[in-house]
Amino acid sequence: MARTRRRTSDPGSLPKAPTGIPGLDEITGGGLPRGRSTLVVGGPGCGKTLLAMEFLVCGTLQFKEPGVFVAFEETEAELAENVRSLGYEIGSLVENKQLVLDHVRVERSEIEETGDYDLEGLFVRLGYAIDSVGAKRVVIDTLEVLFAGLQDHAILRAELRRLFRWLKEREVTAIVTAERGPGSGMTRHGLEEYVSDCVIVLDHRVDHQVSTRRLRVVKYRGSAHGANEYPFLIDAGGLEVFPITSLGLDYPAPAGYVPSGIPELDEAFDGRGFRRGSSVFVSGTAGTGKTSVSAGFVNAACARGERCLFLSMEESADQIVRNMRSIGINLERWRKRGLLQLQSSRPTLYGLESHLATIYKAVRDFDPRIVVVDPITNLGAVGSDPDVTAAITRLLDFLKSKQITGLFTALTSNPDDPEHSEVGVSSWMDTWIQLRTLESEGKRRRGLYVIKSRGMPHSDSIHALRFTARGIRLGSFARERT
């Protein structure tokens, strides 16, 4: 097993409160600043409330730190119902006095501005809730509603400062949510980000009709942190952040080999197959058999008892299973035994970062030894060539860091230049296999040859590739003519 390096705080560094949110603690170097306030900024639907609620629930369940959630928009019942769909049952936490939900009704029309206006009533109410459960974590959601009735900017800014100072004096780890400001401003009032010790910005963007959620730590006083944009997903398990943009080249190179599933192809690699933990690139024009070669590789791996993840971007899982039966490959038996997971999705379902995040999650949950992506060239539908190349490069590094053998197919659109890689990552691959359609004597034949294979001898011949009812075979064109 590969060793996973985890960032930890130095003994003398800023104390941290772990969030329990996968990926976020890694980005922040251990969690949010303990006893201080974190501002979570974003537009509608970005996931601010969910992140804040998950921070409280994880604090209660994982770290034995009770929490208080003060909401100005949603009622207690609405909050409980909304997070129930994500797997959180907070009713029992409230009953056991581990969590307090408090809905504060604020009506702008009922607020009368005077020079004496302040938040004393909120402080009394919040202080009582904190003391009732011994809360260590507090969420205030959202500032805009709390200050909806204030038009005097001097009063508003004074009360904002007072709110953050009060939270710090109570020594609670707080999350305060806020809406994005108009124009280029980060927040609506332009002060919150300055009085907060940590600022996290959530973004939900749509590009070419494809939705992507991203998170960025803009500011973190007294602590190093990841400053890139990181994709995150919201699914049935809650929120998960994927710190995938800064992988290095420090992964190990495992020993051993992995059979290709085609005995004759293994002979083309000195009788040993592919190197374990390497990246294999199978390219070719339409109809040359890229998916079939991938299925043969997966079939052999499952027969050895290794888990395989097959990610298809063109065919449904059932269609792949049906089609492979025609060449004697029964993938359904491996699905039933839990050795094979087939996932199918159109490239346009997610943005590039979300596709990577989805693959990361599938790898973490299923723990495969083999991953197939068929075909990676389809990702060009949701990103520019440089973006696609960068995304695939990060995926390669991720799989290598896990010592997972990856096989990637790619469609070659120009038959006159078959060795041109459409996605521009062929140089990053350890092994490159090219499939071609060759015409001779009025017949079309499939051919296979190895363009490169790092660190091992390989055949330089063009092999005849045949698909039979009993599997995939390689042979000699000379023998076929005779």
What does this structure look like?
The chain has two domains: 16-241, P-loop containing nucleotide triphosphate hydrolases (Rossmann fold, 3-Layer(aba) Sandwich), CATH 3.40.50; 257-481, Rossmann fold (3-Layer(aba) Sandwich). The chain is 30% helix and 26% strand. It is built from 15 helices and 22 strands. It has helices at 24-27, 48-63, 76-84, 91-95, 120-133, 143-146, 153-169, 192-195, 263-268, 290-303, 317-325, 332-336, 352-366, 385-401, 477-481; strands at residues 16-17, 32-33, 37-41, 67-71, 99-103, 137-141, 173-178, 198-207, 210-220, 230-235, 238-241, 257-258, 274-275, 279-284, 308-312, 340-344, 370-374, 405-411, 431-440, 443-453, 463-468, 471-475. The strands form four sheets. A nine-stranded mixed beta sheet has the order 5-4-6-7-3-8-9-10-11, sandwiched between helices. It has a nine-stranded mixed beta sheet with strand order 16-15-17-18-14-19-20-21-22, sandwiched between helices. It has a two-stranded antiparallel sheet with strand order 1-2. It is elongated. The protein starts with 15 loop residues before the first strand and ends with a helix.
